[in-house]
Predict the structure.
Amino acid sequence: MPHIAADRSRPDPLGGVAEEIEVRGHIIDSLLLPKILDRILQMGGTFEIKECKIGARRVDPSHARIAVSAASPEALEEILGDLVVHGAAPVAPQEVRTIEADIPGTFPDGFYSTTNERTQVRLHGKWIDVDDQEMDCGIAIDPARSSARCLAMTEVELGMPIVVGHDGVRVIPVERSREASLFGFMGSNVSSEKPKAISLKGVAKSIRETRKAGQKVLLVGGPAIVHTGSAEHVARLIREGWIQTLFAGNALATHDIEQALHGTSLGVSMTRGEPIEHGHEHHLRSINTIRRLGGIRAAVDAGVLTSGIMFESVKAGTDVVLAGSIRDDGPLPEVITDTLKAQARMREAIHGVGFALCIATALHSIATGNLLPAWVKVVCVDINPATVTKLSDRGTFQTIGLVTDVEPFLRSLAQELA
Amino acid sequence: MPSPARILMCRPDFYRIEYEINPWMHRDVDSDPAESRAQWLALRDVLTDLGAIVEEMEPAPDLPDMVFTANAGLVYHDLFLSSRFRFGVRQGETSHFDAWFSANGFRVESLPEGMYFEGAGDALFCGDTLFAGYRFRSDARSHHWLGDRLGVEVLPLELIDPRYYHLDTCFCPLGPDEAVYFPGAFDSYGQDVLKSRIPGLIEVSASEAVSFTCNAVVVGRSVVLNEAAPKLAGSLRAAGYEVHPRRLTEFIKAGGSAKCLTLRLDGEEAAAWKAPKVASRSDQSP
């Protein structure tokens, strides 16, 4: 699990970022200390007096060390700038410490382990944002470009400067208040006892806002989407431009294609709801057909695959990442069977994603949650409350859970967005 | 018999409004050289008449504000802490002032680079305490440095009205526990500090403060200040001071008046350290 800590700059429990200042002189009788504390509060910050030594005689100077917190680095900067006028001096934060990677594919001992929260490192006397924010990674510094980014253990190359310890690292948690207004339509508690229409409208609104802001919507889906007869709703969402990125496994694609080619999902007729004779062979025959044609795109180009989620994805140019698993049949040629390669592809594909809708899949949702920074909104829809809580418990705390059958949810969402 | 007051002044030979570094200065409202000279001489003469010894230093061309010697630095016994002017247009004065103080038996020291401090314009002793103004010209950091260097209590006061950009434009110690001040130039913290520390505090009204009446020179029990402050003059007389109003309008055009035109070399009347041989913790040469 990620942990959040930084020596000189630890997040305020209410969210935000802190830095220490020092005030020295006759700060008691001049009322400078009370004034500085008042200024901090007036400007929306908070403080904690870390140390205060009062001069014994009137001519002796007093000294105070104060941790100042604010909601954002910008707000903190403004407060510190004001306090400097009154004689306060920022306690110079330490520079970030790095050690060059000595073994490829591993971090040096004592490496800084990341969270999914916005993180900054102190480089050449300035706080800079860490790019590609992702939990459970390390931070590599590029001294030439004065930049920093999260990278997975496997990406480490010999000689890369890797951040160690907590000096010169600060974490800026997502503001809960802002979170509430963005996601005001529901609390984070997972429950099946919530009014669905309101939740649905909230999801639709978030998707619209994401698109309006020029960001991408990511759908992470499991095969239950097809089994429950929701493939047509997802196909519609893709066709109508609401989904730009799709993460799934071999199963979703296979059953979607099975439905398109044979009208069944796992051998069950999608129109009659009954198993069809030899229906259990349909998914394997579908995979074989696609493999014989050289892939999903080739099947669409050949006019063999003419409907469904995968068809619409090819048509719409959706960025699809299919990640394989050990129980896969086939798999389809597009399925990435090397887990690390699949992870890397997903990492690439989440750039620009502002909203993630995870539907009826535990494994792919958690995998995606691991990659997403905390400021990307995540809604998890599943019939099983355990799936939703699991996602939150693995660190993707920003997840909003909706416990519901996926078919009516997707049907209504497609209608709402139409 | 107390030794006579010693005051440094600089003739207004090159005094002009050549730039604008405070709300009073307007280049299109230049000073009249003849009138400036007359007002300056009248001030010098009244101080001499009051028994002060006025030392005159040579003015320098292109440094019009050298006439305001109060800003040269801070005098403490035989130590001269040279100012670090906020604005480049005045920084050239420093070498002239340093040379004069060096030649006249003072030890000359400068504040660390990066600090701003404008001498007796922003730092005035009242009793044992050095009251210091910050924000527009001096910074609070320099005040803390002064406290350490001199081993005295320094109380920084924030100035909140740009018209009263130096402490000596809104605060004038008369004696070790007596001073004149304009409350509107300070925030509530500063007002509270002054009220709690100076028992005999005489308030100046906004209408009189604006004619620079706080910028007064105190010699013994006499106060020389700009005219046009009948209420303050009354208060001062009631407190037992002799009042000598003078016309100083030419210098108000640059944001200065009587006090700005002078620098006390033997310690202000209100400075406890100047009192001869009274046992006091701060009565030691640093």
Q: What stands out?
A: The helical segments of chain B are 33-49, 88-91, 93-103, 140-150, 188-197, 206-209, 230-238, 249-252.
